[in-house]
Specification:
Pterin_deHydtase, PCD_sf, 97 residues, 22% strand, 4-stranded antiparallel β-sheet, alpha+beta, Gyrase A, domain 2, globular, 4-alpha-hydroxytetrahydrobiopterin dehydratase activity, single chain
Length: 97
């Protein structure tokens, strides 16, 4: 179910660095090398496959940008935020290799 604006803002407050843009949440992650960025993307892909919920992924040298939305709901759902929270834990742990 699509989240109302106040719930989106509440959930976003718990995700430092994430931004709400139209029907997406987005964050840019930085790494020390291209290889580290790609390793992170591979781990994100594992999470996305397990959850069957796939972000838009952009790699720009040492930076990875992720964007989430739930197309079948027409906007943001708890799935987007739950997965973003899991990815935040992955990034914080630096266990991307």
């Amino acid at each position: 179910m699509r989240l109302p604006h106040d719930e989106i803002e509440r959930r976003l407050a718990g995700l430092p660095g994430w931004q709400h843009e139209d029907q997406f949440i987005r964050k840019r992650f930085g790494f020390s090398s291209f290889a580290d960025a790609v390793s992170f993307v591979n781990r994100v892909a594992e999470i996305a496959e397990r959850r069957n919920h796939h972000p838009f992924i952009s790699i720009d040298y040492k930076y990875v940008t992720l964007r989430f939305t739930t197309w079948h709901a027409g906007g943001l759902t708890s799935e987007d935020f739950d997965e973003a929270e899991e990815i935040e834990r992955l990034y914080a742990s630096k266990e991307t290799t």
